[in-house]
Specification:
The chain is α+β, with helices and mostly antiparallel strands. It contains seven helices and six strands, in the order βααβααααββαββ. It has one domain: H-NOX domain, CATH 3.90.1520. The strands form two sheets. The chain has a four-stranded antiparallel sheet, with helices on one face. Helix 2 packs across helix 3.
Length: 211
């Protein structure tokens, strides 16, 4: 394997090469509704009525339905719909799209873990990420994720086998990992760097984590 070259968080994938930009044909990949639910709450809190109307006009009819009638947490949502929604939100917000995708992932973590951790426990991040890797099939029906401990307060999360690597997911994952660690009240500083990326032709997406 070639040596991993650190990239700034969220820069492992170039959003300009996102297949959605060229008209992405629907596929079988899907994610659990809880992921889209979290992104919806972030958008509603920040875009308000005018921004949400702009977002609605950007979405295809099948994706627009989720904006009007959010999925249940246990529903399976087409990956295409999640990616289209996130890209639409980024377009309405403006600025760097990766920053919006990271914010969406961060919100997903804080929404689901708020109030769970009252104090830092040195082993807890490792246990959480190990469990997260095992539960991957419950939230995404494609690819696989593996976690390895690298040190007392460092670890590596590896995602591979994605049929269609998606830049949106990588940036969102960075924000999610950062949000998870912050909710655990780690001493910090929290750092998440994507050092390998399938979107760039690497065999896997590899995230270096430290806290």
């Amino acid at each position: 394997m070639k040596a991993a070259t650190p990239r700034a968080a969220g820069q492992g994938c170039n959003t300009l090469s996102d297949p959605m930009a060229a008209g992405w044909s629907p596929g079988a990949e899907a994610v659990k509704g809880t992921m889209l639910q979290a992104h919806l709450t972030w958008a509603r809190d920040r875009l308000r009525a005018p921004g949400l109307e702009r977002l609605r006009l950007l979405l295809a009819p099948e994706s627009r339905e989720y904006l009007e009638r959010p999925p249940l947490a246990t529903d399976w949502v087409p990956l295409d719909a999640l990616v289209e929604f996130d890209r639409g939100v980024a377009a309405v917000v403006g600025g760097a799209a990766d920053r919006v995708y990271r914010a969406l992932g961060h919100h997903s973590a804080t929404l689901n873990l708020q109030g769970v951790y009252k104090a830092f426990a040195v082993e807890e991040p490792h246990r959480f990420f190990e469990q997260q890797a095992l539960l991957h099939p419950r939230f995404l029906n494609f690819g696989s994720v593996h976690y390895e401990r690298a040190g007392l307060q460092t670890g590596r999360m590896r995602a591979e086998g994605y049929p269609r690597p998606v830049p949106v997911l990588c940036a969102s994952a960075v924000g999610y990992f950062e949000g998870v660690l912050e909710m655990m009240r780690v001493p910090g500083p929290v750092q998440c760097t994507e050092v390998l990326c399938q979107c760039q032709g690497d065999p896997s997406c590899l995230f270096d984590l430290s806290w």
